[in-house]
Amino acid sequence: MKITKDLYQGSLALLTDFYQLTMAYAYWKSGKAEQEAVFNLFFRKNPFQSGFTIAAGLEYVIDFCRNFNFNESDLAYLADMKNTDGTVVFESNFIEYLKEMRFTCDLEAVEEGTVIFPHTPIIKVKGPLIQCQLLETALLNIINFQTLIATKAARVVLAAKGDSVLEFGLRRAQGIDGALAASRASFIGGCSATSNVMAGKLFGIPVSGTHAHSWIMSFDSELEAFYAYADAFPEKCVFLVDTYDTVNGIKNAIEVGKALREKGKEMIGVRIDSGDLAYFSNVARQMLDEAGFPDAKVVASNDLDEHIITSLKSQEASIDVWGVGTKLVTAYDQPALGAVYKLAAIRDENGNWDPKVKVSQQSIKINIPGNHDIIRFLKNGKAVADMIYLKEDTSGKNIFTIIDPIDPTKRKKVNSDSMEQLNLLKPIFNKGKKIYDSPSIDLIKENTQKNLQYFDKTHKRLINPHIYPVGLEEKLYQLRTDLVFKMKNYEHE
C-alpha cells in the first residue's frame, strides 16, 4: 500500500520559516524570482556515530510538492502582516504573484531505503529561485527526521541479527506527526510492525500489540486475566508476564497455553517488560521448552536500543522478538540529523550555470558547488566508493580520482571499466509534473536491506565503523577549491 494521497489534505505552503518568505519577496522585488537555480539537500555527518545513513521521507516530499500552493486563507494571513510602522510587509502584487504560483521545479532524489553518506545530495531541486527557496524548510523538516529514524531503526535491526523488531513508540513520540513519520521511517529501516494503528492505515504497515499491565490489574488474578484474553484472542496470545511476579506469570501463561492447545490453538509467546531481561528470558525459555512450548516466542521490551540489544545478545539472552519504542522514535541519543539545503548553482544571463560556494572557517561547512550528480561504484556486488561529479566532466572517461571533500590527502582511484555504476539521484518531478512511480512501503523496506548488503560488515559496525570512501571527482574538487580562493579574494597556485 502506498501513502494515502494528500496526507495532509491540502497545501502546507506556510510550513516554513518567515525568512523564506522575506527572501521570496525580495527575490520578486529585485526581479530574480524566476531566475533558474539549483539547490542541494545533504547532511554533514552520519548520525549516532554510524558508518551509514538510510534515506527516508521522499514520499512525504512528493506529497508536499504536489500540493504546493498558497490558498486563500494563507494569502489573507500574509496580506494582513504589518511592519512596526503599520505598513504591510508584503505588497498586494506579491500576494497576487503567490496566488498564481504553482510548483514547476525539476526534482531529483535518492530513493528511500538507499544507503547514503555525508555531503552527497539526498535531494536536488532545480527551478525558479523563489520556488526553490520556499521549499527549503519543509524539505529539511521531512528529510531530517525520517532519515534519522530510518537509520536508527536499521541499526537496531542489525543489532537484533535477524530477530523481529517491533516499533512500540507512539505514546513517547514527538506529537502526532512525529509519531506517524517515525512509524513509517522505522518500517523502512527494517522493523517488522508498529503499534501505531493510524500508521498502519495510512501506510500499510503491519500493526502489532497484545495487552498492558492494566488488563491484568483489572481482574482479581493474573490467571483470570490470561484466560479472558485467550478467550477474546485465541489466535494471538502473547501474555505480558511481569505485572506481579515474572516467574509466576510464565507459569500462568503456560497453564493458559495448555488450555488453548486443547482447543486446537497455540500460544504465540510471552512478553517481559521489566527486570533482568537476560535472566528472565532464559528462565522463560527453559520453562516454555520443558512445558512443551518450544515454538513459543519470548518478546522483550523496556527502553531498548541497539546497544542494549547487543549487550543482551552477548549475554545469550533467549529473546526472539524485540519491542523498541522511546529510544527509536525519538532518536534518543541524537535528536536531529543536521541536514542542510544550499544553493549550488544559478543560471547567468547567458544561460550558463554559475556555480556557487559558501565559504566557512570550518571546512566541513563549505558546500559543493555546481550542477552535480552521484555515482556509486560496485565490484562483485559490493560498494567500492561514491563519487560526486559534474555531469559534463565525466563523458568518455573511465579512470577517476575521488578526493575526500574534507581531507584532500584521502584519495581513491576508480576504474569504471571493471565496475557496475549506480546513478543514485532519480528523476522525481519534471517541471512540476511527477514522473516517478512511487514504490510500496514494502518495496522501500526491501530496498533498505538490498542497499545494506552492498556494504561490508565493517561499515555497519555499531561502534567505530570503517569509513566508506565518498568524494569529489577531481575536476569538481578543483572547481570548489578555485571558488573558495576567489571568494576569499586571494590567489593560489
From TrEMBL:
Concerning PTM, the database record says: Transiently phosphorylated on a His residue during the reaction cycle. Phosphorylation strongly increases the affinity for substrates and increases the rate of nicotinate D-ribonucleotide production. Dephosphorylation regenerates the low-affinity form of the enzyme, leading to product release.
Q: Which PANTHER family match?
A: NICOTINATE PHOSPHORIBOSYLTRANSFERASE (PTHR11098)
**Which segments constitute the Nicotinate/nicotinamide phosphoribosyltransferase domain?**
167-347
Its family?
Belongs to the NAPRTase family.
Every copy of the Nicotinate phosphoribosyltransferase C-terminal domain together lies at 373-480
Question: What keywords appear on the UniProt entry?
Answer: Glycosyltransferase, Ligase, Phosphoprotein, Pyridine nucleotide biosynthesis, Transferase
Q: What positions does the domain Nicotinate phosphoribosyltransferase N-terminal occupy?
A: 14-144
**Is Transferase included in the keywords of this UniProt record?**
yes
Q: What is this protein called?
A: Nicotinate phosphoribosyltransferase
Q: Which organism is it from?
A: Belliella marina
